[in-house]
């Protein structure tokens, strides 16, 4: 029974002990200072931490920016024209781009024919990334 009374008494006393005394003053430059100790030679105002209202944090909701529509690229215009005029060609371009993407994602060492010499040249990682980007754009434009 004694431990229970001791626990209850400590619960009622603890909140009053947690409230700290804070001193505030303004220096000659107009800067406001806060401290738990009174500095010597300063006229400080005594306030209690229980009296300070905590600021609200995170109450402003973020504002979503509306996405601006980008102007249509030449590739998008030509893709639109090809899809309108020749759907078979658009389907062929779509399948070719999907196949290229599959090859680029599957194999690590790929070669291409050099347009000048006609020799097989190993594709660099930068060239593979550029090819991925190009084919992803073709898939986006022709496959829908």
UniProtKB/TrEMBL annotation:
Residues 46-79 are annotated as: Disordered. Coiled coil: none annotated. Residues 10-55 form the DUF4124 domain. Residues 65-79 have a biased composition (Basic and acidic residues). Residues 1-19 form the signal peptide. Keywords: Signal. This is DUF4124 domain-containing protein. The lineage of its organism: Bacteria, Pseudomonadati, Pseudomonadota, Gammaproteobacteria, Alteromonadales.
